[in-house]
Model the fold of this input.
Amino acid sequence: MSTSSGTPPLRGITVLELGTMYAAPTTGRMLRDFGARVIKVEDPRVGDYARQWTPQHEGLSIGFARLNAGKESVGIDLRRTEGRDLVRRLAARVDVVIESFRPGRLEEWGLGYDVLSAENPGLVLTRVSGFGQTGPYRERPGFGTVAETASGYAYVNGWPDTPPTSPPFGFADSIAGLAAAFGTTTSLLRRTATGCGDVVDVALYEPLMFIMGDVILNYSATGHVQQRVGNGSGSASPRGIYQAGDGHWLAIAASNQTIAMRLFDAMGRPEYRDDPRFSTNRARMRHNEELQELVRAWVVARPRDEVLADLDAHEVVAAPVNDAADIVADPHFRERTLVDLAGSVLGRALVPGPVLHLGGYAGPVYDGVPEIGEHTAPVLGEVLGLSGPELAALDRADVVRSSPVGAA
Done:
């Protein structure tokens, strides 16, 4: 996937990305991955705050590079009336606007959907916010950590004797970005039939709450509040992460009856099939800790590769617990998942590519991470027809930055 072939399904779609940080730029990257042109509007002085995230290499934020490679950066000051006018004019000439301001901010700036759609009826406005555009919490600020707690995820994540735990990466933001991309493409598909755009309203917590749906349905139906269960699922046994004799870790997911029976065969304990403690999932859950101890003892007796080979031979769902070095070295991931991120100070780096594969499209090229304002002049010249003197005047007035600056 280092080179692109086939026709990108979103070729011809132009996206104006007003979003910053994580979730909304994830949406922009998803659309760019499948052929959309993404014009990213940044503060002309400091750019997207994600440029300041760590870790960094040679002054370039790793997180910013991953989400924004291949986009075009236009430096426009949205605090200025002239800057908002430029954005309104750009919105009249694109297919999608992505924004992640607090609800009501676009309307305060005269950039609400009523204004934008009056000039561009086919526009899709994708809005990502902490708690959505409606409801009692709509005005609350929200980041991924808040979404991970409000959705119920953090409460069930961890061990019974540890506090509720959020993940050490942008989990809620990423899922919200994927959901927003799905909503955007759905609206674009509908537009082909109606000619009309739409508003896509994504709250950071809602896609994650959808994933947590069984926990919520269980409570509303039975009154049971799921607690933290560590590496188990609370619904099937045996399932977990186990340490092998060489110190390496692996996961086993014997989450249905057939696989549990195969695991017993792999362990050399076929008698467990008919053992009343382990013969059904309900029984296994009642005796989960006892069964887990038996699995742990079997795994720790040998090196990880031997255990995984036996599990694979018996078609038991299992995998090593990989760190980043393991992933980069793995031939499967190198062939299918990891792609080059070239043309930046990171050198020849690898990044996970698109989240899915299409038979007729090999995928995008990730070449270059934009500097702040790197594409201001060509974009405003091409899309809005601004002349060199007009751009220079806007630059002198600090409305735009028409020459690039390095990452903050």
